[in-house]
Amino acid sequence: MNAIKSLSIIAALAVSFAACSKKEDNKTTTPTPNPTPTDTATVGKVGFEFSHKAGSADLVMTTGNYTNAAGESFTVTKFNYYITNIKMIKADGSEYAEPESYHLIEGDVASTHHFHMNSVPKGSYKGISFLIGVDSTRNVSGAQTGALDPAKGMFWTWNTGYIMAKVEGTSPVATSTDKKFVHHIGGFTGGNSGVKKVTIMFPQNMDVSAAKELSVLLNTDILKWFSPSTISIASNTNIMSVGMTSAAIASNYANMITLNAAKYE
After folding, report:
1. Does residue 196 sit within a domain?
2. Quick one: how many helices (H) and strands (E) in the chain?
3. The whole model's pTM is what?
4. Is 184 part of any domain?
5. Could you state, in chain order, the average pLDDT of each consecutive group of 10 residues for the chain (265 residues)?
């Protein structure tokens, strides 16, 4: 009788165990999804730094004395120019264009000499391109804000259009009574346009990633404002309109920005 009871107990336990096992086997679990890459994993940061030069020397605003291609001495009190429509050129030749790409570099405002592009797609890049000046669309779009705010002093309210670049200073050969000279270069259409495209290639391909910032260091040489087309301050003390002389200066300054280095920070 005891043997029969023992067998019954064993059988009951076996059925119970099987039931529990079956219940566990049918249990549904939700798999943990793979992490979704964040935006910061697919983009990187590129920094731009502009250093102002007079030949190989640093440009010193107001007090520095320099000699242009015409052999005229001068000082610089204002040196402003727009850097716009920046594009990063990928190794395969395709491009990434910075949205709302309008930056005003002001010689006497150090904080404007550097800026960042924060959402550049990761990849290998072989160079950059940009405009010196403001594109025609923004020249005819009415009042702007930010770097394009007319309050920045880079807009011809009397002639509707942006000043692409300007140099002001003093020179003993200037024909003005106070010996000041003013060169404001504008125009956004036609053969005398002051808008110039610049393309700069890196010595080797540079990677953009979330792991490190690519820093592009650029030199801007004020002496190239006056050459290779020789611009005399004595003959051109005041330039504030679009014409052949302003176009010659624009062709000069198309070559004033060169690469110092591209490196990782």
Report:
1. yes
2. 4, 14
3. 0.84
4. yes
5. 46 46 41 46 95 97 98 98 98 97 97 96 97 95 89 85 97 98 96 97 97 96 98 98 97 98 94
